[in-house]
Design a protein that fits this description.
Layout lengths: L1 E7 L8 H10 L3 E6 L8 H9 L5 E4 L2 H4 L3 H13 L3 E4 L4 E2 L3 H34 L12 H12 L5 H8 L3 H12 L4
Parallel strand pairs: 1-2, 1-3, 3-4
Antiparallel strand pairs: 4-5
Length: 189
C-alpha cells in the first residue's frame, strides 16, 4: 500500500491541493491529511498512518518538512517506518528509501544525527563535571533543611505529633515524612 501524508500548518492560508495532486501522480492509494504544526509531535493522522504501516508499504510526502520540522522527530518517524519494514519517498527532494541510494542517504543523515547526539552528550557531561568542580550540584533543592528533618524525627518518634501533622506543618507530603523517619530508623552500616 502506498500512503500519502499531507500536512498544512494550522492557521495558515495554505491548502493541501498541491500535495494531493502530487500524490495522485505518484500513485498514492490512501492519504492522511493533517492541519497542524510540523513542530508538534501530537498529530493524530501521522500516528494513525504509522500504526497502519506493514512490510513493503511506502510513505510518500510532498516535502520532508511536511513530515516534521525537527530533525530529531524526523529521525524518530523514519525509524518507525524502517521498523515496520516500509519505504519512504519525498517527492520534492527525490528521497526514496525503497532503493539502495535512498537508503544510503538516510543512513548518512542518521549517522550525522547520531554524531550530533553524541556531541550533545559530551558537552552536557563536560558542563556537569565543570559545575561539580566548582561545588555546584544538580537536581532540585531539598524542601527541608537538616534542622527541620531533626524536628520531624523527634516529634514523630516521641509521638508528640503524627506524620500527617508534621507534613502539614512543613508543607510536604506524608510520604516525605515517612521516608525521613524510615531513613533515620535504618541502622548505619
Amino acid at each position: 500500500m502506498i500512503f500519502g501524508y499531507s500536512r498544512i500548518s494550522k492557521g495558515d492560508d495554505q491548502n493541501a491541493r498541491l500535495q494531493i495532486k502530487a500524490f495522485k501522480e505518484a500513485g498514492v492509494e490512501k492519504t492522511f491529511e493533517e492541519n497542524a504544526s510540523g513542530g508538534r509531535w501530537d498529530r493524530p493522522a501521522l500516528h494513525s498512518m504509522l500504526n497502519q504501516l506493514r512490510k513493503d508499504d511506502v510513505v510518500v510526502v510532498w516535502k520532508l518538512d511536511r513530515l516534521s520540522r525537527s530533525l530529531k522527530d524526523l529521525l524518530v518517524i523514519m525509524e518507525k517506518i524502517d521498523n515496520a519494514e516500509a519505504g519512504f519517498k519525498s517527492l520534492t527532494e527525490s528521497i526514496d528509501t525503497t532503493n539502495a541510494a535512498g537508503r544510503m542517504m538516510m543512513q548518512m543523515v542518521g549517522a550525522f544525527a547520531e554524531f550530533e547526539r553524541e556531541m550533545i552528550r559530551e558537552r552536557t557531561k563536560a558542563g556537569l563535571d565543570a559545575a561539580r568542580t566548582e561545588g555546584r550540584v544538580g537536581g532540585r533543592r531539598p524542601k527541608l533543611r537538616d534542622d527541620q528533618k531533626k524536628d520531624i524525627i523527634e516529634n514523630v518518634l516521641s509521638s508528640r505529633k503524627t506524620g500527617a501533622q508534621m507534613a502539614r506543618l512543613y508543607n510536604v507530603s506524608e510520604a516525605t515524612i515517612s521516608r525521613i523517619v524510615a531513613k533515620h530508623r535504618q541502622p548505619i552500616t
